[in-house]
């Protein structure tokens, strides 16, 4: 299992978010449905404990200080009967204090100014959150002033006040945890001279895709197909016929230079409730069912780059971005691939590791492949390892994707769910091979099946 000591401080800071949102709900319930000064005293106790915990994990939060200060003031004044106040006035004090806290955060006195760990949230996202809550408290303040100065106060308006912070809770959790990766506009984005786009899963649209893939992988495919498929057209038709049943469940992406396809990649998401197997059957009894208990699995395939466009990493990074964004959208914790032996070094440099060092063979065509896996959750949560991966994955990860994915993993850990990022490569291999020892057959036997 992966040592989680290094990620604990960041995890603890992220896990504060649902706790803070829960306390917002508790605050409204106590203030409205419990009598003074008992409600403010309970809030003072709760936020004292929260601030001690925040201090322990290195969090600075002016909102907690504002609620604690308002609770102490209201408790002392009402408890000692030094101030004849009612609920609207107490709520006004709270909202004014929280509005001042928002101003302080925006002025740089709180978490917005701390960019040390962007996995907790990018400065832009934190600033949007502060603006959201500042608007909520400003609206509540205006509403309370109207209630207090009106000649005939409408007390029922007080019960509308909880809707404002409750809306803020929902929006905050969605912004930080529930928001999906920013979608590709029309499934298209540009990087330098290259355009990356999704391809419709139809025979006519995919034929150019397969022509590039087969052309670059021709030695590996011919090695399995034998003399019956000597031409590219024959190999393209053979590969398309073998893959056709999986097209409805597969996403295809291509890199274009002008109107010419110069790179290909595809992916298929596997959840516990859908078909659980590798896209192309092979001689090794691998199964992703056990691995899916820890997170969804995204199978990557058909990776190829035209030999004239392999200089630099622009095309490879763009193709990886396509599938990694799909992994984040599908909340996938792991990537798996059936790699041709000739492409295995490329996947190793990216960070994939072989499930078994001995080659397996795809049924029906006999191509020698190596099943490989990659722990995307560990890569995002624990960061890069110089011995395990290059910066290719890091450059393909968009901050918008990574920070939300990191937070989801932290919340799962808070509620005790299986933590995918803690699995080591040997753990993943054991889960992928529930039958134990892999069975191996030679290419001739496989082709005859």
| Basic shape | elongated
The CATH architecture of the largest domain can be named as 3-Layer(aba) Sandwich
CATH superfamily of the largest domain: Gcn5-related N-acetyltransferase (GNAT)
Catalogue the unreliable spans.
111-120, 385-390, 436-449
Q: What percent of residues adopt helix (DSSP H or I)? A: 40-55%
Distance between the amino and carboxyl termini: 38 Å
**Succession of helices and strands:** HHHHHHEEHHEEEHEHEEEHHHHH
CATH uppermost class of the largest domain: Alpha Beta
Class inferred from helices and paired strands? alpha+beta
Number of domains: 2
Total count of strands: 9
Which characteristics define this entry?
single chain; 449 residues; alpha+beta; Aminopeptidase; 2 domains; nine-stranded mixed β-sheet; 9 strands; 51% helix; 13% strand; elongated; disordered C terminus
Q: What do you see in this structure?
A:
By secondary structure, the protein is an alpha+beta fold. The chain folds into two domains: 171 residues; 264 residues, Aminopeptidase, CATH 3.40.630. The chain contains 15 helices and nine strands. Strands 1, 2, 3, 4, 5, 6, 7, 8 and 9 form a nine-stranded mixed beta sheet that branches. Strand 3 and strand 4 form a beta hairpin. The chain is elongated. The two termini are 38 Å apart. 40% of the residues are buried. The C terminus is likely disordered.
């Amino acid at each position: 299992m992966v040592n989680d000591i290094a990620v604990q401080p960041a995890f603890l800071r992220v896990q504060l978010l649902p706790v803070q949102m829960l306390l917002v709900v508790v605050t409204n319930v106590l203030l409205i449905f419990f009598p003074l000064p008992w409600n403010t005293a309970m809030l003072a106790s709760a936020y004292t404990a929260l601030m001690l915990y925040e201090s322990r994990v290195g969090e600075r939060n002016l909102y907690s200080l504002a609620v604690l200060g308002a609770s102490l003031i209201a408790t002392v004044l009402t408890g000692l009967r030094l101030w004849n106040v009612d609920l609207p006035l107490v709520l006004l004090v709270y909202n004014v204090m929280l509005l001042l806290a928002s101003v302080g955060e925006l002025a740089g006195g709180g978490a917005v100014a701390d960019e040390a760990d962007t996995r907790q949230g990018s400065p832009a996202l934190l600033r949007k959150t502060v603006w959201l809550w500042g608007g909520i408290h400003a609206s509540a303040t205006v509403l309370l002033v109207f209630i207090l100065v009106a000649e005939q106060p409408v007390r029922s308006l007080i019960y509308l006040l909880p809707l404002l912070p409750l809306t803020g809770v929902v929006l905050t959790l969605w912004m930080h945890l529930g928001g999906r990766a920013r979608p590709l506009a029309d499934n298209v984005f540009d990087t330098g001279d290259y355009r990356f786009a999704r391809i419709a899963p139809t025979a006519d649209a995919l034929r150019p895709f397969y022509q590039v893939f087969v052309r670059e992988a021709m030695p590996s495919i011919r090695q399995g197909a034998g003399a019956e498929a000597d031409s590219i057209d024959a190999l393209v038709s053979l590969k398309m016929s073998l893959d056709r049943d999986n097209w409805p469940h597969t996403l295809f992406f291509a890199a274009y230079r002008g109107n010419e396809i110069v790179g290909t990649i595809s992916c298929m998401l596997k959840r516990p409730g859908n078909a659980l197997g590798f896209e192309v059957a092979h001689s090794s009894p691998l199964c992703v069912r056990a691995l899916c208990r820890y997170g969804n699995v995204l199978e990557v395939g058909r990776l190829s780059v035209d030999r004239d466009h392999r200089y630099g990493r622009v095309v490879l990074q763009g193709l990886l971005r396509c599938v990694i964004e799909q992994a984040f959208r599908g909340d996938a914790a792991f990537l798996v691939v059936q790699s041709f032996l000739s492409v295995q070094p490329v996947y190793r440099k990216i960070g994939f590791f072989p499930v078994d060092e001995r080659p397996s063979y795809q049924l029906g065509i006999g191509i020698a492949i190596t099943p490989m896996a990659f722990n995307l959750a560990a890569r995002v949560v624990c960061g890069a390892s110089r011995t395990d991966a290059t910066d290719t994955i890091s450059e393909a990860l968009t901050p918008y994707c990574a920070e939300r994915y990191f937070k989801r993993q932290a919340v799962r850990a808070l509620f005790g769910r299986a933590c995918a990022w803690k699995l080591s490569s040997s753990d993943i291999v054991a889960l992928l091979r529930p039958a134990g020892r892999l069975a191996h057959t030679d290419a001739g036997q496989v082709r005859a099946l």
